């Protein structure tokens, strides 16, 4: 009887020890799972905060873009910073960075483009502005809206005592010059490019781009590039009369033509077959 009783006690002790070990393992697993869950929640909270910070930063950047500087910076100098990005330094104002856009008007009087002896400010391209300012600061007035320049106008040299130089008060813009009959005249054979609605350039090989306007009475003839095709349709020498919309579409891609300009406005445009 005593031997059987001892066996029963040993078995009971073994079972009890097993149950205690199982309970400990269960508590340990539960504790570990709770810690893991807490870590996951903490990581998620950090990620949410980072995402919110990025969102706020992006929002601030957009607000900054939409609240760009507007105003006129007279008697300043324009310096190149990066493609499409410049800085103007004007007396009494902090240096102001600005961008240029496709519709930014640029006028030169010998440094950006044009002739210093001309009474008319020459319309320039954005490429000419970049080339000139890469060489050094250019004296110019800048008008900007929301951080983007609407007008960059090179200033003329002040009138000197010996009569050389030009009086900045007597200059004309391209439109004013055309209205006074001072626009450019001549015939160009070269690549035609689009600048803005009604405004184009023609560049002869190794030449300087010449800007010109088109008018309602500008004759536009196509031989396959602007419209029509070689020897197709009615018109001069078998060409096809094109619309200004077709001219604009072709010029945005680029084409070669003969352009006859009278007083700054194209009289005829014949694309090259």
What this model shows, in words?
The strands form 2 sheets. The chain has a 7-stranded mixed β-sheet with strand order 3-2-1-6-7-4-5. A 7-stranded mixed β-sheet has the order 10-9-8-13-14-11-12. Residues 28-36, 57-65 and 159-171 have low confidence and may be disordered. The protein has helices at 2-66, 126-135, 174-179, 244-253; strands at 71-82, 85-89, 96-99, 105-108, 122-124, 138-145, 148-154, 186-196, 199-203, 210-213, 219-222, 240-241, 255-262, 265-271. The protein is α+β, with helices and mostly antiparallel strands and 273 residues long.
List unreliable stretches of 5+ residues: 28-36, 57-65, 159-171
| Principal-axes shape call | elongated
Determine Rg (CA atoms, Å): 37 Å
Number of strands: 14
Across the major sheet, the strand order is 3-2-1-6-7-4-5
- Helix-strand sequence: HEEEEEHEEHEEEEEHEE
Total DSSP helices: 4
Structural class label: alpha+beta
N- to C-terminal separation? 124 Å
The percent range for strand residues is 25-35%
User: What percent of residues adopt helix (DSSP H or I)?
Assistant: 25-40%
Largest sheet report? 7 strands, mixed
- pLDDT averaged over residues: 75
């Amino acid at each position: 009887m005593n031997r059987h009783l001892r066996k029963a006690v040993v078995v009971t002790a073994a079972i009890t020890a097993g149950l205690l070990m199982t309970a400990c393992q269960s508590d340990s697993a539960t504790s570990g799972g709770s810690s893991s869950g807490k870590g996951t929640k903490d990581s998620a909270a950090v990620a949410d905060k980072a995402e919110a910070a990025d969102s706020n930063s992006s929002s601030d950047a957009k607000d900054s873009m939409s609240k760009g500087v507007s105003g006129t910076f007279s008697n300043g100098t324009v310096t190149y910073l990066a493609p499409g990005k410049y800085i103007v330094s004007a007396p009494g104002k902090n240096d102001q960075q600005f961008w240029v856009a496709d519709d930014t008007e640029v006028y030169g009087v010998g440094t950006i483009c044009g002739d210093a002896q001309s009474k008319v400010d020459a319309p320039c391209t954005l490429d000419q502005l970049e080339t000139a300012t890469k060489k050094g600061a250019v004296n110019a007035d800048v008008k900007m809206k929301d951080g983007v320049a609407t007008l960059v106008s090179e200033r003329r040299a002040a009138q000197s005592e010996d009569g050389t130089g030009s009086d900045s008060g007597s200059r004309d813009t391209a439109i004013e010059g055309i209205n006074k009959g001072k626009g450019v005249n001549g015939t160009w054979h070269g690549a035609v490019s689009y600048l803005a609605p009604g405004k184009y350039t023609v560049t002869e090989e190794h030449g300087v781009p010449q800007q010109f306007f088109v008018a309602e009475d500008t004759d536009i003839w196509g031989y396959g590039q602007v419209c029509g095709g070689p020897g197709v349709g009615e018109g001069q020498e078998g060409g096809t009369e094109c619309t200004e919309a077709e001219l604009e579409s072709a010029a945005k891609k680029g084409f070669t033509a003969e352009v006859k300009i009278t007083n700054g406005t194209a009289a005829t445009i014949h694309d090259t077959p």
